[in-house]
Structures are given as structure tokens and as C-alpha cells.
Design goal:
It is a single chain. The chain is about 50% helix and about 10% strand. The chain is an alpha/beta fold and about 475 residues long. It folds into 3 domains: about 130 residues, no CATH class; about 100 residues, Rossmann fold (3-Layer(aba) Sandwich); about 200 residues, no CATH class. Strands 4-3-1-2-11 form a 5-stranded mixed beta sheet, covered by helices on one side. α4 packs across α17. The longest helix has 30 residues. It is a multi-pass membrane protein. Keywords: Membrane, Transferase, Transmembrane, Transmembrane helix. Pfam families: Bac_transf. This is Exopolysaccharide biosynthesis polyprenyl glycosylphosphotransferase.
Length: about 475
Amino acid sequence: MLKVNQKQTRKKNIFLSPYILALLDAFWVNAGLFLAFELRFWGNVPDYNIEPFWDIAPWLGIATIVIFSGLGLYEKRRNGYMSVLRASLTGVAGIFMITLSLTFWLRGFAFPRSVLLLSSILQMLLISLWRYACWYLEKKIHGLRRLLIIGPREEKEKLLEQVIDFPRGWFKVHKVIDYTSVDQLDEWLEEIDAVLLVPPFPSEQRARLLADCRGAGCDVFLVPDFYDILLLNARMGQLSDLPVMEIKDIGLTEFQQVIKRIFDIALALLGLILTAPITVTCALLIRLSTSGPAFYTQKRVGRGKRVFHLLKFRTMVEDAEKETGPVLAVDNDPRITGIGRFLRATRLDELPQLFNVLKGEMSIVGPRPERPVFVQEFAQLYPDYHMRHIIKPGITGLAQVVGKYTTSPEDKLKFDLYYMRNYSLLMDFKIILQTIPVLFSRESAGGIKHDASTFIAVYQRPGSGTDGSKMPTSTVSLPK
């Protein structure tokens, strides 16, 4: 019992308060601008310059909190520091644009260009150091938790492949078991700090597992299945005196569809205008470096399972699938051209899809459209796969922001259904913002990995047996 109490006590104050983070983010951003003034004028800033700074400081602080919140920097992040750094630097770049706008309206001549440029450098440095300190402190307070993974025996290969890919430093896999071994759970609960439950699992065991784990003071993480996602935001009601859960439809209301369409058209037009020089440059580079056209179209499945032609920059050799037929790209795919690797890594190959948005075939945010042949395959594996075609596909989406290119179709489907269940215009804004740092993540644009035999071989090496002590892991939670 003493050990249980220690676990429960340690769980308190694990994470820094997001309110404190927000206030100090605003402070460091303004501090960077203030220090830029001090350095520019060697510590003797004229009143003409410093007074407008005090005028914009509150607005700059509010803008910082809004942008950082949209980038997910106030959500729990049990992963590597690089994802935090990418989001933080993206936020500082957004703050630079906001600062330019504010100085234009509020005595812009009081803000020399040297101050604006220097402030961005200082803000990047201060925010990077501050956010690293927060990440490091959170990691130390959290501690390396011993994790028990309970999952189905028949999916052990897939489970191990995902586990070994998790970020390091937050969790250490202590044991991986299936549901036939839960009779020994009481013994293992004394040795672990957290439990990850992976579906599918018997419903009669679910409540007991959750109760036992929480009663032992362990953190519990549940990978949701499609049934769990459908229950999200269900409303409690009654039929006579019978308590029931009323499940709302997945999808957008007519009003939401109209607002989303206006939002899509405005962003697509703005995007095409702003990226016109980039589009022309990419097209020329493709034509000069490879044989074949700069653009290509590919059949994809959209809303209502209607097939449309998706427009992209060509990143593979001409007639890449002539010998193989339709196949997914893999790591180090030899069919991808040199310029194609760059376009894929930066996601610039997706730019022409803004024309698909204007035509009404796609949205800016939504599930990524798949090719008909893959849709047929996935539909056979996952009976709920057709539900993602209730809304228009998107250039970016929740699955692309929180997942990777190598994320399994099943997990991507869960993210897509979660998005459809919880859609709001604010969520679209957040996904668009969070797409920007993803562009600088190499793993987000890589090809699919090969089978899990390599991972299992690692897991079964001497010293990496059933306790899994050499297999660090973390967890992924759906954003709120």
C-alpha cells in the first residue's frame, strides 16, 4: 500500500502549468524585443523608441499565447525536444510577422529594421533555451516510467514495431504481455508505473483492467478503437427512465460546410498568389533535372467515394509504376528523383493541390485522399474505413500533423475519425499552424518501412527479452 501511495503522490504536479508557460512565453518574447532596443542603442534608448514598445508589448504577448497555443505548445508532449523546438521557432517566425504588422500601425518609424531583425534572433534564442529548460525539467520530474504493454497476441509484430519507434527518455518498456496473461497483473503492478492498453481486447476484461491499474496508482493509456471514437462527445440522455448515450452523426452540418468552403476558397486563392514564384521555380527545376512533365495527375477517392484527379508536382521518374503497378513509396525508394526528395521532404509537391481545393474536390484540412486500389484494400481490412469519405479530403489533416508518413492506415483512420467527430474552424486553424513545423521534420515525409522482422530480431536479442529493458517508449494522445 505504501508503494501505491508513493505513485499517486508522484503523479501530482508532473507538468508545468500551461498558464505559467503562457505568461513566461509572452515575457521572453517581449524581453527579446526590449533587449534588441538596448543593444541597438547601447543601453540608452530614446523615449521616441521605447514608448511605442510599451504600447505594443501587451498585444505582442497576447499574439504569442495565441500562436503558441495553436501550435500545441501548451499540450502535453512526451516526446523529443526537436518537435518542441520546431514548433517554438515556427511560433517566433509568426511573432515576427505580427510585430511587423503592429509596428506599421503604431508609430512604425520608432522600430528600426535592425531592431526587428535582432529581436527575432534574440527571441529564437531565448524561447529555445526557455522551452528546453521546461522540457528538461518536465522530463526529470516525470522520471523514466516503467511501462507494461497489454495487447493482443496476434498483433505482437505490429505492436513491437510501433513500440521500438517511440521517443526515448520518458518510458521504459518493462514487459509486453497479451490478455491471456492478465491473471498475473497484480504482481506486475507492483513493478510498473504505467500501463498501455492496446485493442482489441475482451470487453469483460476492460473495466477490471482499468480499475486495477488506476487503483494501483499507475498511469493508464488506452489506444482507442473505432467504437471509442464514435462515443466521443456522446450526450447522456434517457428513454423514459432508461439511461442512454445519444450518438451524434460524424460529419459537418450544412452551416459548417458553407463556412469551411468559404475558408477553403480564401486560403487557396491567397496560397496560390503567395506561392506563385515557388510554384514556377519548382516546375522549372523538375523540367531541367529530369525528363517528363513537371506536373502529374493521379486518381484519388474523395467525398462520397467519388474519384477525382489529384494534381501534384512529379517527384518520381517517369512511368515509375510501369513495372510494379500501384505501390506505396518506401524508405530510400529508388524511383524518387533528386529534386523529388527535396519536394517531398518540404511537402512542396503538394502545392498544386490548391487548384483541387478551388475546384471543390478537396479542402485545405481533411483526411488525405487515397488511391482507389488502396481504398479497396484498406476497406477490406478496416470495415469503418468508408467513414472517412463522409467529408472532403484535405491537403493536410490531423493524421499528418500528429502522425508520420509511416503511421499505419488504421491509426490514420482513427485520427481522421477523431477530426470528423470534433470538427471546428478553430481546429482547422490549429492543424494548419501545426503543419508548418511538420514540414521541417524528415520522418514525417519518409516512405513506409519494411516488415517487422527486423524489430522482432532486436527485441529478441540477448539482454532484450521479456522485460524489454532496452526498448524505450512513449505514448501518443489525441489532441483536445
